[in-house]
Specification:
The protein is mostly helical and about 70 residues long. The chain has a single domain (about 5-74), classed as Winged helix-like DNA-binding domain superfamily/Winged helix DNA-binding domain (Arc Repressor Mutant, subunit A). It has 3 helices and 2 strands. Helix 1 (about 25-35) crosses helix 3.
């Protein structure tokens, strides 16, 4: 899966935070819900405009960003 197929950064939309495409739901929103913990099924029940694949894309985006930050700092 390519997270780029599901995540976009648009200037002016949610202050330029990465969002699930065609929504105003940020990657950070999804990560916070998962940390509560909410299951992907609970999230999609509460937010039917997103699906499990998009939730997984948020995780992939966060992992990629973390990896990138780690390699810069090293």
């Amino acid at each position: 899966m390519r997270y780029q197929d599901h995540i976009e950064i648009v200037s002016g939309k949610r202050s330029g935070k990465p969002c699930i495409k065609n929504t105003r739901i940020t990657v950070y929103d999804v990560l916070e819900w998962l940390a509560l913990p909410m299951t992907p099924e609970e999230i999609t029940d509460d937010y039917p405009e997103i699906n499990t694949e998009q939730i997984l894309a948020c995780l992939a985006f966060a992992a990629s960003r973390e990896h990138h930050l780690h390699t810069i700092a090293a």
